[in-house]
Amino acid sequence: MAKKVIDARGSFCPGPLMELIAGVKAADVGDELEVLSTDKGSATDIPEWVKKVGHEVVGTKEENGVWHVFIRKAK
Amino acid sequence: MKILIVGGGMGGTILANNLARRLHGELKSGKARIVMLSASDRHMYQPGLLYVAVGRMTPDELYRDQASLLEPGIEFHVDPVTEFHFAKNHVTTQSGKTCDYDVLVIATGSRAMMTSIPGLAENAETFYTEETAVKMFKALRSFEGGRVVVTVGVPHKCPMAPLEITFMLHDYFKDRGMGDKVQIHYTYPIGRVHSLENVAKWAAPEFDRLGITYETLFNMKEVDGANKVLKSEEGSEAKYDLLIAIPAHKGMEVVEKAGFQNGWVPTNRTNLHMDGEHGKNVLVLGDTTNLPISKAGSTAHFEAEVVAENLAAVVKMGVPVRDYDGKVFCFIQAGKERATYASFNYTTPPSPQPPTRAVHWFKTAYNKLYWASARGLL
Hints:
By secondary structure, chain A is an alpha+beta fold. Chain A has helices spanning 16-26, 42-53, and strands at 3-8, 32-37, 56-63, 66-72.
Protein backbone atom coordinates (compact mmCIF):
# COMPACT_ATOMS: atom_id res chain seq x y z
CA MET A 1 0.00 0.00 0.00
CA ALA A 2 1.43 3.33 -1.05
CA LYS A 3 1.92 6.41 1.10
CA LYS A 4 1.48 9.78 -0.53
CA VAL A 5 1.95 13.34 0.70
CA ILE A 6 -0.35 16.10 -0.55
CA ASP A 7 1.38 19.39 0.09
CA ALA A 8 -1.49 21.89 0.30
CA ARG A 9 0.33 24.48 2.38
CA GLY A 10 -0.70 28.00 1.37
CA SER A 11 -3.60 26.71 -0.69
CA PHE A 12 -6.64 28.96 -0.46
CA CYS A 13 -8.11 27.80 -3.75
CA PRO A 14 -8.74 24.94 -4.40
CA GLY A 15 -7.73 24.37 -0.77
CA PRO A 16 -6.53 21.34 1.18
CA LEU A 17 -9.81 19.39 1.18
CA MET A 18 -10.26 19.76 -2.58
CA GLU A 19 -6.64 18.65 -3.06
CA LEU A 20 -7.36 15.62 -0.89
CA ILE A 21 -10.56 14.75 -2.77
CA ALA A 22 -8.57 14.74 -6.03
CA GLY A 23 -5.79 12.75 -4.35
CA VAL A 24 -8.19 10.12 -3.00
CA LYS A 25 -9.63 9.61 -6.47
CA ALA A 26 -6.16 8.96 -7.86
CA ALA A 27 -5.18 6.60 -5.01
CA ASP A 28 -5.77 2.87 -4.60
CA VAL A 29 -7.84 1.31 -1.82
CA GLY A 30 -5.61 0.91 1.23
CA ASP A 31 -3.29 3.81 0.33
CA GLU A 32 -2.45 6.27 3.09
CA LEU A 33 -2.50 9.97 2.28
CA GLU A 34 -0.98 12.73 4.38
CA VAL A 35 -2.30 16.24 3.79
CA LEU A 36 -0.13 19.19 4.79
CA SER A 37 -2.16 22.32 5.44
CA THR A 38 -1.56 25.77 6.87
CA ASP A 39 -5.31 26.18 7.40
CA LYS A 40 -6.29 25.06 10.88
CA GLY A 41 -9.82 24.40 9.54
CA SER A 42 -8.34 21.36 7.77
CA ALA A 43 -8.07 19.58 11.13
CA THR A 44 -11.87 19.49 11.27
CA ASP A 45 -13.19 19.74 7.71
CA ILE A 46 -10.97 16.97 6.30
CA PRO A 47 -11.98 14.39 8.95
CA GLU A 48 -15.63 15.44 8.52
CA TRP A 49 -15.56 14.64 4.79
CA VAL A 50 -13.43 11.51 5.17
CA LYS A 51 -15.88 10.02 7.67
CA LYS A 52 -18.92 11.04 5.64
CA VAL A 53 -17.62 9.27 2.53
CA GLY A 54 -16.49 6.21 4.47
CA HIS A 55 -12.70 6.44 4.40
CA GLU A 56 -10.58 6.25 7.55
CA VAL A 57 -8.96 9.05 9.53
CA VAL A 58 -5.61 7.72 10.78
CA GLY A 59 -4.54 10.77 12.76
CA THR A 60 -3.99 14.50 12.96
CA LYS A 61 -1.08 16.51 14.33
CA GLU A 62 0.19 20.10 14.24
CA GLU A 63 3.85 21.04 13.89
CA ASN A 64 5.12 24.61 13.55
CA GLY A 65 1.85 25.92 12.17
CA VAL A 66 1.41 23.07 9.68
CA TRP A 67 -1.42 20.57 10.19
CA HIS A 68 -0.77 17.00 9.09
CA VAL A 69 -3.92 14.97 8.51
CA PHE A 70 -3.44 11.26 7.78
CA ILE A 71 -6.19 9.27 6.08
CA ARG A 72 -6.58 5.84 4.49
CA LYS A 73 -8.66 5.18 1.39
CA ALA A 74 -11.09 2.49 2.50
CA LYS A 75 -13.22 1.77 -0.55
CA MET B 1 20.68 29.13 -25.16
CA LYS B 2 17.77 27.37 -26.87
CA ILE B 3 14.52 27.73 -24.94
CA LEU B 4 11.80 25.33 -26.02
CA ILE B 5 8.22 26.18 -24.99
CA VAL B 6 5.76 23.34 -25.35
CA GLY B 7 2.20 24.69 -25.50
CA GLY B 8 0.73 27.78 -27.15
CA GLY B 9 -1.94 28.61 -24.60
CA MET B 10 -1.98 31.60 -22.30
CA GLY B 11 1.09 30.65 -20.23
CA GLY B 12 3.28 29.63 -23.15
CA THR B 13 2.30 32.63 -25.27
CA ILE B 14 2.84 35.24 -22.55
CA LEU B 15 6.15 33.64 -21.67
CA ALA B 16 7.36 33.58 -25.28
CA ASN B 17 6.43 37.22 -25.93
CA ASN B 18 7.72 38.56 -22.63
CA LEU B 19 10.96 36.67 -23.10
CA ALA B 20 11.36 37.75 -26.73
CA ARG B 21 11.17 41.39 -25.70
CA ARG B 22 13.64 40.90 -22.87
CA LEU B 23 16.02 38.99 -25.13
CA HIS B 24 15.60 41.11 -28.25
CA GLY B 25 19.35 41.64 -28.68
CA GLU B 26 20.26 38.05 -27.84
CA LEU B 27 17.72 36.69 -30.35
CA LYS B 28 19.15 38.97 -33.02
CA SER B 29 22.73 37.98 -32.32
CA GLY B 30 21.92 34.28 -32.13
CA LYS B 31 22.94 34.01 -28.47
CA ALA B 32 19.39 32.88 -27.62
CA ARG B 33 16.58 31.09 -29.46
CA ILE B 34 12.91 30.73 -28.50
CA VAL B 35 11.06 27.84 -30.11
CA MET B 36 7.37 27.16 -29.51
CA LEU B 37 5.63 23.88 -30.35
CA SER B 38 1.85 23.92 -30.22
CA ALA B 39 -1.00 21.60 -31.09
CA SER B 40 -2.92 24.33 -32.92
CA ASP B 41 -2.41 27.29 -35.24
CA ARG B 42 -5.23 29.07 -33.38
CA HIS B 43 -5.32 30.54 -29.88
CA MET B 44 -8.56 30.40 -27.92
CA TYR B 45 -9.70 32.80 -25.20
CA GLN B 46 -11.00 30.03 -22.99
CA PRO B 47 -12.93 32.15 -20.44
CA GLY B 48 -15.18 33.19 -23.32
CA LEU B 49 -16.72 29.71 -23.41
CA LEU B 50 -18.80 30.64 -20.37
CA TYR B 51 -20.47 33.36 -22.44
CA VAL B 52 -20.93 31.09 -25.46
CA ALA B 53 -22.77 28.61 -23.23
CA VAL B 54 -25.39 31.24 -22.34
CA GLY B 55 -25.59 32.91 -25.76
CA ARG B 56 -23.61 36.04 -24.94
CA MET B 57 -20.66 35.42 -27.30
CA THR B 58 -20.24 33.42 -30.49
CA PRO B 59 -17.32 31.00 -30.93
CA ASP B 60 -15.57 33.01 -33.66
CA GLU B 61 -15.01 35.83 -31.16
CA LEU B 62 -12.78 33.55 -29.08
CA TYR B 63 -10.00 32.90 -31.61
CA ARG B 64 -6.94 34.58 -33.06
CA ASP B 65 -4.22 33.12 -35.27
CA GLN B 66 -1.46 32.07 -32.91
CA ALA B 67 1.30 33.30 -35.20
CA SER B 68 -0.25 36.80 -35.21
CA LEU B 69 0.12 36.99 -31.42
CA LEU B 70 3.82 36.19 -31.31
CA GLU B 71 6.75 38.61 -31.31
CA PRO B 72 9.12 38.45 -34.31
CA GLY B 73 12.01 36.12 -33.58
CA ILE B 74 9.93 33.41 -31.93
CA GLU B 75 10.15 30.21 -33.97
CA PHE B 76 6.60 28.84 -33.97
CA HIS B 77 5.66 25.37 -35.22
CA VAL B 78 2.32 23.56 -35.18
CA ASP B 79 3.74 20.19 -34.29
CA PRO B 80 2.60 18.81 -30.94
CA VAL B 81 5.05 16.95 -28.74
CA THR B 82 4.45 13.22 -28.54
CA GLU B 83 7.25 12.27 -26.14
CA PHE B 84 9.47 13.97 -23.59
CA HIS B 85 13.04 12.63 -23.20
CA PHE B 86 14.26 14.55 -20.17
CA ALA B 87 17.51 12.62 -19.81
CA LYS B 88 18.46 13.47 -23.39
CA ASN B 89 17.21 17.08 -23.36
CA HIS B 90 14.94 16.63 -26.33
CA VAL B 91 11.33 15.96 -27.31
CA THR B 92 9.87 14.13 -30.26
CA THR B 93 6.94 15.52 -32.20
CA GLN B 94 3.92 14.35 -34.15
CA SER B 95 5.71 14.95 -37.46
CA GLY B 96 8.50 12.64 -36.33
CA LYS B 97 11.08 15.34 -35.66
CA THR B 98 13.39 15.53 -32.67
CA CYS B 99 13.71 18.93 -31.04
CA ASP B 100 16.48 19.51 -28.52
CA TYR B 101 16.71 22.23 -25.90
CA ASP B 102 18.87 23.84 -23.27
CA VAL B 103 15.79 24.86 -21.29
CA LEU B 104 12.36 23.28 -21.63
CA VAL B 105 9.11 24.91 -20.48
CA ILE B 106 6.03 22.67 -20.31
CA ALA B 107 2.78 24.64 -20.62
CA THR B 108 0.42 22.12 -22.15
CA GLY B 109 -2.67 22.86 -20.04
CA SER B 110 -5.47 20.55 -18.99
CA ARG B 111 -8.54 18.82 -20.37
CA ALA B 112 -12.05 18.32 -19.03
CA MET B 113 -12.77 14.65 -18.37
CA MET B 114 -16.50 14.07 -18.85
CA THR B 115 -15.70 10.36 -18.92
CA SER B 116 -14.39 10.43 -15.35
CA ILE B 117 -17.87 9.76 -13.93
CA PRO B 118 -20.12 6.97 -15.26
CA GLY B 119 -23.04 8.42 -17.17
CA LEU B 120 -21.82 12.02 -17.08
CA ALA B 121 -20.76 12.42 -20.71
CA GLU B 122 -24.04 10.93 -21.96
CA ASN B 123 -26.36 12.92 -19.70
CA ALA B 124 -24.77 16.25 -18.79
CA GLU B 125 -23.98 19.49 -20.57
CA THR B 126 -20.69 21.30 -20.09
CA PHE B 127 -18.84 24.22 -21.68
CA TYR B 128 -15.08 23.56 -21.66
CA THR B 129 -14.76 23.24 -25.44
CA GLU B 130 -16.33 25.15 -28.31
CA GLU B 131 -18.38 22.13 -29.27
CA THR B 132 -19.75 21.46 -25.78
CA ALA B 133 -20.45 25.14 -25.07
CA VAL B 134 -22.53 25.45 -28.25
CA LYS B 135 -24.30 22.17 -27.45
CA MET B 136 -25.06 23.44 -23.95
CA PHE B 137 -26.54 26.66 -25.28
CA LYS B 138 -28.79 24.70 -27.63
CA ALA B 139 -29.94 22.62 -24.64
CA LEU B 140 -30.76 25.80 -22.71
CA ARG B 141 -32.68 27.17 -25.70
CA SER B 142 -34.86 24.09 -25.90
CA PHE B 143 -35.31 23.64 -22.13
CA GLU B 144 -38.93 24.16 -21.18
CA GLY B 145 -38.53 24.21 -17.42
CA GLY B 146 -37.74 21.99 -14.47
CA ARG B 147 -34.82 21.36 -12.17
CA VAL B 148 -31.35 22.42 -13.33
CA VAL B 149 -28.54 20.85 -11.32
CA VAL B 150 -25.00 22.26 -11.45
CA THR B 151 -22.38 19.77 -10.32
CA VAL B 152 -18.65 20.08 -9.80
CA GLY B 153 -15.71 17.66 -10.05
CA VAL B 154 -12.15 18.14 -8.79
CA PRO B 155 -9.73 19.36 -9.83
CA HIS B 156 -11.30 21.71 -12.37
CA LYS B 157 -10.12 24.58 -14.52
CA CYS B 158 -11.32 28.04 -13.46
CA PRO B 159 -12.40 27.91 -9.82
CA MET B 160 -15.02 30.59 -10.37
CA ALA B 161 -16.75 28.69 -13.20
CA PRO B 162 -19.21 26.83 -10.92
CA LEU B 163 -20.50 30.05 -9.36
CA GLU B 164 -20.39 32.02 -12.60
CA ILE B 165 -22.36 29.54 -14.65
CA THR B 166 -24.95 29.26 -11.87
CA PHE B 167 -25.51 33.02 -11.73
CA MET B 168 -25.52 33.23 -15.52
CA LEU B 169 -28.09 30.44 -15.76
CA HIS B 170 -30.30 32.26 -13.27
CA ASP B 171 -30.21 35.44 -15.35
CA TYR B 172 -30.64 33.55 -18.62
CA PHE B 173 -33.88 31.90 -17.52
CA LYS B 174 -35.11 35.06 -15.80
CA ASP B 175 -34.61 37.04 -19.02
CA ARG B 176 -36.63 34.48 -20.92
CA GLY B 177 -39.48 34.84 -18.44
CA MET B 178 -38.90 31.32 -17.14
CA GLY B 179 -37.86 32.22 -13.60
CA ASP B 180 -40.91 30.54 -12.10
CA LYS B 181 -40.51 27.41 -14.24
CA VAL B 182 -36.86 26.73 -13.45
CA GLN B 183 -35.36 25.68 -10.14
CA ILE B 184 -31.56 25.87 -10.00
CA HIS B 185 -29.78 23.54 -7.60
CA TYR B 186 -26.02 23.85 -7.01
CA THR B 187 -23.76 21.17 -5.60
CA TYR B 188 -20.17 21.57 -4.40
CA PRO B 189 -17.49 19.11 -3.24
CA ILE B 190 -16.55 20.67 0.12
CA GLY B 191 -18.55 21.96 3.08
CA ARG B 192 -19.31 25.44 1.70
CA VAL B 193 -20.36 26.80 -1.70
CA HIS B 194 -16.85 27.79 -2.79
CA SER B 195 -13.30 26.82 -1.89
CA LEU B 196 -12.42 30.40 -0.95
CA GLU B 197 -14.06 31.04 2.40
CA ASN B 198 -14.67 34.74 1.77
CA VAL B 199 -16.17 34.02 -1.64
CA ALA B 200 -18.42 31.37 -0.09
CA LYS B 201 -19.56 33.85 2.57
CA TRP B 202 -20.64 36.21 -0.19
CA ALA B 203 -22.09 33.62 -2.59
CA ALA B 204 -24.32 31.64 -0.20
CA PRO B 205 -26.55 34.62 0.71
CA GLU B 206 -26.67 35.55 -3.00
CA PHE B 207 -27.97 32.05 -3.76
CA ASP B 208 -30.55 32.43 -0.98
CA ARG B 209 -31.63 35.81 -2.34
CA LEU B 210 -32.05 34.43 -5.87
CA GLY B 211 -33.82 31.26 -4.76
CA ILE B 212 -30.95 28.98 -5.82
CA THR B 213 -30.77 25.91 -3.57
CA TYR B 214 -27.51 24.17 -2.81
CA GLU B 215 -25.96 21.07 -1.30
CA THR B 216 -22.37 20.96 -0.09
CA LEU B 217 -20.10 17.94 0.51
CA PHE B 218 -21.40 16.53 -2.76
CA ASN B 219 -18.92 14.69 -5.01
CA MET B 220 -20.22 13.08 -8.18
CA LYS B 221 -20.20 9.29 -8.21
CA GLU B 222 -22.46 8.35 -11.11
CA VAL B 223 -25.34 9.57 -13.23
CA ASP B 224 -28.45 7.43 -13.64
CA GLY B 225 -29.62 8.87 -16.94
CA ALA B 226 -32.75 6.70 -17.19
CA ASN B 227 -34.13 8.09 -13.95
CA LYS B 228 -32.41 11.50 -14.21
CA VAL B 229 -30.66 11.15 -10.88
CA LEU B 230 -27.13 12.26 -9.98
CA LYS B 231 -25.62 10.20 -7.14
CA SER B 232 -22.84 11.39 -4.85
CA GLU B 233 -19.92 9.67 -3.13
CA GLU B 234 -21.43 10.88 0.12
CA GLY B 235 -24.59 8.84 -0.47
CA SER B 236 -27.05 11.57 -1.47
CA GLU B 237 -28.95 11.99 -4.72
CA ALA B 238 -30.02 14.97 -6.81
CA LYS B 239 -32.91 14.71 -9.27
CA TYR B 240 -32.44 16.78 -12.39
CA ASP B 241 -34.18 17.71 -15.60
CA LEU B 242 -31.05 19.41 -16.97
CA LEU B 243 -27.60 18.53 -15.65
CA ILE B 244 -24.71 21.00 -16.04
CA ALA B 245 -21.24 19.69 -15.17
CA ILE B 246 -17.95 21.30 -14.30
CA PRO B 247 -16.09 17.99 -14.67
CA ALA B 248 -12.83 16.89 -13.12
CA HIS B 249 -9.80 17.74 -15.24
CA LYS B 250 -6.56 15.99 -16.09
CA GLY B 251 -3.32 17.22 -17.59
CA MET B 252 -2.63 16.39 -21.22
CA GLU B 253 -2.14 12.82 -22.40
CA VAL B 254 1.46 13.41 -23.50
CA VAL B 255 2.35 14.47 -19.96
CA GLU B 256 0.53 11.48 -18.47
CA LYS B 257 2.41 9.24 -20.88
CA ALA B 258 5.68 10.68 -19.56
CA GLY B 259 4.85 9.07 -16.22
CA PHE B 260 3.15 11.90 -14.36
CA GLN B 261 -0.02 10.80 -12.58
CA ASN B 262 -3.12 12.39 -14.11
CA GLY B 263 -0.89 14.55 -16.26
CA TRP B 264 0.18 16.95 -13.49
CA VAL B 265 3.91 17.61 -13.27
CA PRO B 266 5.37 17.83 -9.73
CA THR B 267 6.67 21.39 -9.58
CA ASN B 268 8.57 23.54 -7.09
CA ARG B 269 6.15 26.15 -5.76
CA THR B 270 8.54 29.11 -5.90
CA ASN B 271 11.04 28.56 -8.71
CA LEU B 272 8.58 26.57 -10.91
CA HIS B 273 11.20 23.98 -11.85
CA MET B 274 10.05 20.41 -12.34
CA ASP B 275 10.90 18.29 -9.29
CA GLY B 276 13.48 15.54 -9.63
CA GLU B 277 16.87 14.98 -11.22
CA HIS B 278 15.92 16.38 -14.64
CA GLY B 279 14.21 19.50 -13.29
CA LYS B 280 17.28 21.72 -13.39
CA ASN B 281 16.53 22.85 -16.96
CA VAL B 282 12.78 22.10 -17.04
CA LEU B 283 10.11 24.59 -15.94
CA VAL B 284 6.37 24.12 -15.71
CA LEU B 285 3.56 26.65 -16.13
CA GLY B 286 -0.18 26.97 -15.60
CA ASP B 287 -2.58 24.06 -15.33
CA THR B 288 0.22 21.55 -15.98
CA THR B 289 1.76 21.93 -12.51
CA ASN B 290 0.66 19.89 -9.52
CA LEU B 291 0.72 23.01 -7.33
CA PRO B 292 -2.20 23.45 -4.91
CA ILE B 293 -3.34 26.67 -6.54
CA SER B 294 -6.10 27.60 -8.95
CA LYS B 295 -6.01 26.20 -12.46
CA ALA B 296 -6.72 29.55 -14.09
CA GLY B 297 -5.41 31.76 -16.86
CA SER B 298 -4.18 34.34 -14.38
CA THR B 299 -2.07 31.71 -12.60
CA ALA B 300 -0.40 30.85 -15.90
CA HIS B 301 -0.01 34.57 -16.65
CA PHE B 302 1.73 35.44 -13.38
CA GLU B 303 3.88 32.32 -13.48
CA ALA B 304 4.89 33.13 -17.07
CA GLU B 305 6.04 36.61 -16.05
CA VAL B 306 8.25 35.15 -13.31
CA VAL B 307 9.71 32.52 -15.62
CA ALA B 308 10.36 35.09 -18.37
CA GLU B 309 12.15 37.42 -16.00
CA ASN B 310 14.19 34.55 -14.59
CA LEU B 311 15.17 33.01 -17.92
CA ALA B 312 16.17 36.40 -19.30
CA ALA B 313 18.27 37.01 -16.19
CA VAL B 314 19.91 33.60 -16.55
CA VAL B 315 20.83 34.39 -20.17
CA LYS B 316 22.16 37.83 -19.25
CA MET B 317 23.88 37.16 -15.91
CA GLY B 318 23.66 33.48 -15.12
CA VAL B 319 21.18 33.55 -12.21
CA PRO B 320 17.40 33.87 -11.77
CA VAL B 321 16.02 36.91 -9.96
CA ARG B 322 12.48 36.20 -8.74
CA ASP B 323 10.29 33.72 -6.89
CA TYR B 324 6.65 33.00 -7.70
CA ASP B 325 4.51 33.95 -4.70
CA GLY B 326 1.38 32.00 -5.67
CA LYS B 327 -0.39 35.04 -7.12
CA VAL B 328 -3.82 34.42 -8.65
CA PHE B 329 -6.46 36.93 -9.80
CA CYS B 330 -9.93 35.78 -10.76
CA PHE B 331 -12.87 37.79 -11.98
CA ILE B 332 -16.20 36.50 -10.69
CA GLN B 333 -19.10 37.11 -13.06
CA ALA B 334 -22.07 37.36 -10.67
CA GLY B 335 -24.80 37.26 -13.32
CA LYS B 336 -25.07 39.03 -16.64
CA GLU B 337 -24.44 42.58 -15.39
CA ARG B 338 -22.47 42.43 -12.17
CA ALA B 339 -19.04 41.10 -11.27
CA THR B 340 -16.39 41.15 -8.59
CA TYR B 341 -12.92 39.62 -8.26
CA ALA B 342 -10.67 37.68 -5.93
CA SER B 343 -6.92 38.24 -5.67
CA PHE B 344 -4.69 36.10 -3.46
CA ASN B 345 -1.35 34.33 -3.11
CA TYR B 346 0.26 31.64 -0.96
CA THR B 347 0.08 33.77 2.20
CA THR B 348 -2.80 36.21 1.74
CA PRO B 349 -6.42 35.10 1.29
CA PRO B 350 -8.74 37.16 -0.89
CA SER B 351 -11.28 39.58 0.42
CA PRO B 352 -13.80 40.01 -2.41
CA GLN B 353 -16.04 43.06 -2.44
CA PRO B 354 -19.76 42.97 -3.35
CA PRO B 355 -20.30 42.69 -7.13
CA THR B 356 -20.74 45.90 -9.12
CA ARG B 357 -21.60 46.91 -12.65
CA ALA B 358 -18.23 48.69 -12.90
CA VAL B 359 -16.28 45.45 -12.40
CA HIS B 360 -18.62 43.73 -14.86
CA TRP B 361 -17.75 46.30 -17.51
CA PHE B 362 -14.07 45.93 -16.72
CA LYS B 363 -14.41 42.17 -17.17
CA THR B 364 -16.26 42.77 -20.44
CA ALA B 365 -13.40 45.00 -21.57
CA TYR B 366 -10.88 42.38 -20.47
CA ASN B 367 -12.58 39.85 -22.75
CA LYS B 368 -11.01 41.97 -25.54
CA LEU B 369 -7.95 43.18 -23.66
CA TYR B 370 -6.97 39.53 -23.24
CA TRP B 371 -5.25 39.72 -26.61
CA ALA B 372 -2.95 42.39 -25.22
CA SER B 373 -2.23 40.09 -22.27
CA ALA B 374 -1.41 37.21 -24.57
CA ARG B 375 1.00 39.46 -26.45
CA GLY B 376 2.68 40.12 -23.11
CA LEU B 377 1.73 43.80 -23.12
CA LEU B 378 -0.71 43.89 -20.19
